[in-house]
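Hello,

Our lab assistant flagged a job as stuck in the queue for most of the afternoon. It eventually completed. Since we weren't sure the result was trustworthy after the delay, we are filing this so someone can double-check. Below is the sequence as submitted and the structure that was eventually returned. Let us know if re-running is recommended.
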Amino acid sequence: RFGIEQVISQSLRVIDIPERVFSHEELQVYIMEESEDADEAAREEVPVQDVVSDDEIFKRLTEEIYENLDVAFSNVTSYATIFSPFRETWLSNHEEVENLEGKYSPDEGKIDLEEYKTDINKYKGQQDSFATIPFIADVGIFTVDSSQLKDELMPSPLRMMKALKDLLPELMSKQSTSLLSCLEKIVPVIERGPEDVRQFVHKKNTVLEAVGNIDKYKEEQAHIHDMEMLMNEMSWTIPDHERVHIVMVGENMRSLE
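-- returned structure --
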């Protein structure tokens, strides 16, 4: 509104620039104040911008302009509230991505895959929601260009999805490496024939340990398999070294069984 007020004020100064007809010195000999134009001549002494600004029609029209501008700006302000939820989501995502790895630190060698899937679906939904942010819209007499805002907000759910995509194979590798390390210590002992009493006792104890933990090993293997299926479902590439780990875990588990 202030800008419009300045435009109108400057316009009044502009119309006062040309010299008035009745005040032009070369026309003074033709002007007779005693004539019927005496009132007009007197009026010529008042600056044009004062004449216009004191005019009732001018006052009414400018006031209507200001009132309509207030309404128009109010409508734009109301329209801008549609971006508030996206802003809150952006702020929340910014905090969550920093704590994502800590959130999914393996608990006893495993992560909660159901919670992981829930987060994937949440951020996929955000992508669809953020795509509805308008690039541009006509709000009354104004055109609101929100394209830059959309460009800045859109990467938020994409960044979260990428973080989940990058984190899952890391978590998968930690679990498979841990299980493989354990199996590679046990399986060779079980498969190798003892050559003396000490080796026989060691093998016997190792077998008892393996029998006691076999269900745990199977559960961990199944969990790794579930992580593999989730990555396939999302069309996320499984690193080659992790594919090797999965094969080796399977071979050792078959030997153990």
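-- support follow-up --
The delay was a queue issue, not a problem with the job. The result is valid. Residues 111 and 246 are 17 Å apart (CA to CA). The chain is about 75% helix and 5% strand.
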